[in-house]
Amino acid sequence: MGLSRRFDLCRAYLSQNRDFVCSLRDLLAKLIRPTCTMLAKSHILKIEDDDVYKRIHLRSIRYPLYWPKSIPLYNLYMVISESLCENDWHYYEVPETQVKPGDVVLDCGAAEGLFSLKILEHAQCIVVEPSPMFIGSLTKTFNDKDNVRIIPYALSSHIGQAYLCQGTLNSVVTNVHDTLPEGSIIIKTATIDQLVGDLGLTKVDYIKGDLESFELEVLQGGAKTIRNHRPKIAFTTYHQDNNWKEMRDFVLSLVPGYAWRVKGLSYLDKSPKPVMIHFWPA
Question: Which CATH architecture has domain 3-281?
Fold first, then answer.
């Protein structure tokens, strides 16, 4: 983590606008911890070239992860540290929201698919990702895995179309207007409720989401699923247009008995936000 980001976290911690708990102990642990590159390399056995992808062998995971060569390795290191280091603020499986054997998991905004690859051997995964770049690597990673379904859609509160402006890990989805933005492609949008119905899922145990400011819309598109199945939920809250209280209040309006907590600290858009919000049946 660079010096400027460390200063930003201190500003976020001291900000009078911070409306959630982040302990000084957690902040200090973040400030002095090793870089994501150092942490990630401790999890990597080897990296091999494979056509347009790199094949990543990880110590704790049986199958390799395929990573697009066009994306810098630094982004891979960031993903690995977030997904495999339990004390990372971005880590999804806190004790209250762990994936249990036999769980049916919706991996919303799956990107490279490391979260689903990690839980592959004890869960059924519905991997939802609109980016063609990542669809290719997901197809390689999950080839012949019978308990994984790859859905090439963007999730939203409505069914239809949207524009995707492809980045590295932060591709941006925008609503369809009259003209196609430069560098964008048209993609299909679906809702969680639609997918659950179309796939004939009789249960949904876990919903994970990292959706580049569309988190609330995706939750709104899954209202019936959340109300009926009461899954564990782990969603990011740090993107620019996220409001963690709106996300919390919406989910609790569907299931008033949910327990919840936020964790982490972010200052990406010069306002303090938690990194994650977790819900689980109390």
Answer: 3-Layer(aba) Sandwich (3.40)
